[in-house]
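Researcher: Here's a chain I'd like modeled. Treat it as a single chain, no partners, no ligands.
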Amino acid sequence: MSDKATPYPGLTDTEELDPGRTLFFERGGSPWIVAIGPIMVAAVLIMEIIGGGRVHWPILTLFGVILIGFSWMQYAAARQHVTVRLTETTLRQGARIVALEDIEKVYPENRTDIPEKWESARALGELPAVPRRRKGVGVKLSDGKLAQAWARDVDRFRTELTEAVLAVKLGMGPSGTSPES
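Model: Modeled as a single isolated chain. Structure tokens:
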């Protein structure tokens, strides 16, 4: 057993947990954001060449490096904090991993105008709220707290999460096997 902190509540060593196959996956961030810097620098370079004036290579290089650096940081942060992976035994929301056995209930979609309690709950993961362009799915954790799991394709995610939590409650192990086999 290791001394290091584990993102799996109730476990002391992450190697003890077989996450099984991936049921749902959404990558946070798009690598296209990194292309913004070179595209903008190329546009300015073309305008300087067409304009017939002097091409300011040092300034274009400096701005290119700055733009590429900031867009790379944004892409890396999105990959770290906005990726969703649901496996047969775990749910990863950003950098936080929750064992499905720690999810007591998955709430259905609210189809009324009256807000449900889970809709104002804190989002799972390290972000304080559901990330932009994603929607929340209400969950009740085994410690009694309400939270929001989140994804872009929220309907498919809610279905997969509900089925995975039910399978864990029924004692189904990874890939539909029982833990004893």
